[in-house]
Each structure stands twice: as C-alpha cells, then as structure tokens.
C-alpha cells in the first residue's frame, strides 16, 4: 500500500461548516482499484458528537416551523443541484468504492427519485379530517416531525442510501445527522455542500465521520429521536436493540441472501443475462444482488452454460475505464473473505465452473480484485450458502419443483429480495404469495421498489416495523396527532357527563 505525503483530509460537516473536529484521530481511505491511500478521514470525538447533536436540536426547532412551501422550495433546489452534479458525485463514488462510473451514476439516479418524492411531501402531510364525528365535534389528525434523526449508512451505496433517508426526513421538518461509511465518505460530503447551496439552514443536515464509538454515541444520546440504519445484519440487530433500549424509534435494515428461481419454461437467454448482471454487477456488493440461482428441474444445465459465457465475458477493470462492467471489491479483507468462502465451497464438493480467485488487473496488482465466480452443486450447509458473501459469486443450487424452491427460500434466515424467471403466471403467483421475502421480482432480478413505494425486507433483513422511503418513510420521520375539537355556541346547554363520552 502506498501513501502520498500530501494527502487530502476529509472533514466533518457540522452546523454548516467543514471542520476537522476535536477528535484528533484519522484513518485512511483507499482506492480499491489500486490499493493506494487516497485521503485521510477525521474521526469524531465526543465533543464533535455533542456539537452536532446540539446544532441539530436547535436547527430542528426552527426548521420544523418553516412553512411547507419554504421547505419544499429547498428540496426542489437540492434536486436540481444533485442532478447537475451527477458526474462529480459518481467520480467520488468510483474513486472510493470502486464500482464503475455508469453504475455509480445509476445509484445517484435512484437517490434523485427519492428527492423528487420528497418534493411532494405536502400531499402526504395533509392529514385527515372527520367533520361532525359526533354532534358538534370534529376530529382531525396531522403529523409533526420527530426532531433529530441520525442516519447510519453502509459503504456499498454512499449516495443512494443516505438519499433514501435525508430528503424525506428533512422535508418532514427534522434535522438529520449522517454517519456515513468510513470507506467512502467523500460523496456524502458533497451532498452536505449541495444541501447548503440549496439554502438549507445550518444544522439541518450534518455529516459526522466515525466508527463504533460515534454510532454508539448517536444510539444512546438523549437528544437523538430516531435512527435509520442500513448495513449488515449483526450491526442492524445491535443498532435496533441499543437504540430502542434508549427510547428511540428505529428502522434497521440488514444483510441479505437473495435467491432467484429459474423454471425450465423461462426464456433462458434473458434469465442468464439478468442473473449475470444481478450477481456480478457492482462486484456483487449490493444488498439486492442475486447470490443464489435455484434451478428447477432441467433448467440447470442450459442455464449454467449461458451464465458461464456471460461471466467469462465480463470486463473487470478500474471503474473509470471505458467499457468496464465490474470493479474491485471494497477492501483487502473483503477480498480475502470472498476467496476463503469460495475455497471452502470447493473443498466441500462444489464445482468451480468459473473461478475468479486468481484474477488481477495488469498494472493494478495491489487492487482488491476478484473475478466473477460461478459455483455449481452448492448445498445448504456450505458457507457459500449460509454466509452473505458480498462479492462476485453466484451459487447454483438444484431443486425439482417450484414448491421446493420456495421452501428453500423460506428456510433461509434472510428475506430481503428474491426473483423468479418463468413464463408461467400461475407459478409466478404461487411464488409471490408463498415466499417470506419483502421485495419480489417477476422476471426482474433486482426488484428495488420505486421511490413512492417503500424498501425493506423480512426476517433478518430488517429490524423494526417501518420500511425505508416512500409513505412508510414519511410515517417513520413524523409523529401523528389526533385532535378532537368542539366549539360550543355561546349559550349552549352543557352536555358534560360523568360517563365515558360516546356518540
Ligand atoms: P456494516 O454493518 O459493516 O456498516 C454499516 C454502518 O455501521 C457503517 O456506517 C459502519 O461505520 C457502522 N458500523 C460498523 N460496525 C459497527 C459496530 N460494531 N457498531 C456500530 N456501528 C458499526 O455494513 P457495510 O459493510 O458498510 O455494508 C454492507 C452490508 O450492508 C451488507 O450486509 C449489505 O447487505 C448491507 N446492506 C443492506 C441494505 C438493505 O437495504 N437491507 C442496503 C445496503 C447494504
């Protein structure tokens, strides 16, 4: 690993300004395609956390009083700024995450959708009114912001996942503190600058960098009201347990093991195209990546040959290189873990149809490269099945019936996404009704819902009861009030009673 002497440092964004903070410690940020250190990241100390929370609390009190028209004016401006900085944001994502530029631009596009949804928050905050619910009595409900929201996000979508959260939280009148992944913190900092340029008051959107200490500080701070978390399952579970024990509302989205069932009646070329893209795109580092292909009956042999052809044709290169399909994985440790799991599968009897373990990009041998890897004959007891690999590895399993495939999916502890490839409506319907999974694709391999629906899995893929963004996001970032009101005429006869009031 090399480190240039004139490294830039990445600071926090607290109360409208970039600051190195008082924590003192820094850690390296790497370019995964070269293994070189590209910057040093300042880590927050307790004083930085206290400063950010205090600024958020003060900002929430005033921002929450802004009219809806004034708040959405900032959202519209922010939307324009993000749209005009897609290339700049994508370049930052590629430099620190490693995914190819077009894929990075794609994640920003999905984030933009959520900003656009949040521009229409007025419609969703209209509340409800029941005229004359009882004689002379009207009942109405409306929603108010929760106050200070902290968002803790993973490395794999450094722009999209923060944008799943902050546009809605902010449009609803909250202040938002983002604790992004330490691995790719530069794009979130550009988001902070764009929020400020859009006219957002200081303290409403802040970025605090750090690891477990910073997260723990947010989870337990009495002035933080709600936590949105996206990351791996063990941390999601911990975040949910810790923050709920400290009286906060929490949505904590975790890891995944997404299966696709392929029936013999599917269009096999189409299925192979989509499976290959869903398994190897972004080096398999998507929580909605397909990592298990469940071939039914005679589908396996045709499918394997076709996926193999596609896997071998993938261009793996630095994300900035024209025509690159897939970049490196995120860290040296991640690469070592992927190789270990692939090796264990081979030792346990799986067939390595395509072996990406020895892959490297000439001239960039220090990058964290893993080539597309296709495993056949994987069984449910192998680590290649029990672990979320989070690398470019597709495991093929074989079953005899669609019912057996559904049972396999339902026995898995995760329930984020799943897909079926078939031309049978009856089997697709059986599948959509039968699987215990939150997001389902029918001939769609990565069924990430559009912004006006909500995103979330079942079982170990989500702790908490609210999915993220869409209407469930609005509900998560607001609290309901119901008002029962009576405006008596001046000389009315009182109807007060010692009995419980009824109609
Ligand atoms: P991670 O769990 O390691 O980190 C997520 C966040 O938690 C980061 O901000 C990190 O700093 C923080 N963190 C890490 N360890 C912590 C600890 N011990 N205590 C407190 N905070 C801690 O996840 P990652 O490796 O950055 O991201 C990949 C994971 O995220 C995968 O499991 C993937 O499936 C999951 N993910 C899920 C979704 C979803 O929508 N369900 C979306 C994207 C990613």
UniProtKB/TrEMBL annotation:
Top EC class for this record: oxidoreductase
Start and end residues of each Aldehyde dehydrogenase domain: 25-483
Leader sequence segment: none
Pfam families named among the record's database cross-references: Aldedh (PF00171)
EC number: 1.2.1.27
A GO molecular-function descriptor: methylmalonate-semialdehyde dehydrogenase (acylating, NAD) activity
InterPro entries hit by this protein: Ald_DH/histidinol_DH, Ald_DH_C, Ald_DH_CS_CYS, Ald_DH_N, Aldehyde_DH_dom, MeMal-semiAld_DH
Annotated SUPFAM superfamilies: ALDH-like
Keyword annotations: NAD, Oxidoreductase
Any one of the GO BP annotations: thymine catabolic process
Domain of life: Bacteria
Parts forming coiled coils: none
Alphabetical list of NCBIfam families matching this protein: MMSDH
Name of the protein: methylmalonate-semialdehyde dehydrogenase (CoA acylating)
Species, as recorded: Arthrobacter wenxiniae
């Amino acid at each position: 690993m090399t480190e240039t002497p004139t490294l830039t440092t990445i600071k926090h964004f607290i109360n409208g300004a970039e600051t190195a903070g008082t924590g003192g410690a820094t850690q390296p940020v790497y370019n995964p395609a070269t293994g070189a250190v590209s910057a040093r990241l300042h880590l927050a100390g307790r004083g930085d956390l206290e400063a950010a929370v205090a600024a958020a609390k003060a900002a929430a009190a005033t921002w929450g009083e802004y009219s809806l028209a004034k708040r959405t004016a900032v959202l519209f401006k922010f939307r324009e700024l993000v749209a005009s900085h897609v290339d700049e944001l994508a370049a930052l994502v590629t430099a620190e995450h490693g995914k190819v530029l077009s894929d990075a631009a794609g994640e920003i596009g999905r984030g933009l959708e959520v900003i656009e949804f949040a521009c229409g928050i007025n419609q969703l905050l209209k509340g409800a009114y029941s005229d004359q619910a009882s004689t002379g009595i009207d009942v109405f409900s409306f929603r108010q912001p929760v106050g200070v929201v902290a968002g803790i996000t993973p490395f794999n979508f450094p722009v999209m996942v923060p944008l799943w959260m902050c546009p809605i939280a902010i449009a609803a009148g909250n202040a938002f503190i983002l604790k992004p992944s330490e691995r790719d913190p530069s794009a979130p900092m550009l988001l902070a600058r764009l929020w400020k340029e859009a006219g957002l008051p200081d303290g409403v959107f802040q970025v605090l960098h750090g690891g477990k200490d910073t997260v723990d500080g947010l989870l337990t701070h009495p002035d933080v009201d709600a936590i949105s978390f996206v990351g791996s399952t063990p941390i999601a579970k911990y975040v949910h347990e810790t923050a709920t024990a400290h009286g906060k509302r929490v949505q904590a989205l975790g890891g995944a093991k997404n299966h696709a069932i392929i029936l013999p009646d599917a269009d096999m070329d189409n299925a192979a195209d989509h499976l290959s893209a869903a398994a190897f795109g972004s080096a398999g580092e998507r929580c909605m990546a397909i990592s298990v292909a469940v071939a039914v009956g005679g589908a396996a042999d045709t499918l394997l040959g076709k996926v193999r052809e596609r896997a071998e044709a993938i261009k793996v290169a630095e994300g900035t290189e024209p025509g690159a399909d897939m970049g490196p994985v995120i860290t040296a440790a991640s690469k070592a873990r992927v190789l270990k799991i692939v090796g264990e599968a081979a030792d346990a009897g799986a067939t390595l149809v395509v072996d990406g373990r020895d892959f490297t990009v000439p001239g960039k041998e220090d990058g964290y490269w893993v080539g597309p890897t296709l495993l056949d004959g994987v069984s449910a007891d192998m680590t290649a099945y029990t672990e979320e690999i989070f690398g470019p590895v597709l495991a093929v399993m074989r079953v005899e019936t669609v019912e057996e495939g559904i049972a396999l999916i339902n026995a898995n502890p995760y329930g984020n996404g799943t897909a079926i490839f078939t031309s049978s409506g009856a089997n697709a319907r059986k599948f959509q009704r039968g699987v215990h999974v939150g997001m389902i694709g029918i001939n769609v391999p990565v069924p990430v819902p559009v912004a006006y629906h909500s995103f979330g899995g079942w079982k170990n893929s989500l702790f908490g009861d609210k999915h993220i963004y869409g209407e469930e996001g609005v509900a998560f970032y607001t609290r309901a009030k119901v008002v029962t009101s009576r405006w008596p005429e001046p000389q009315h006869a009182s109807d007060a009673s010692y009995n419980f009031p009824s109609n």
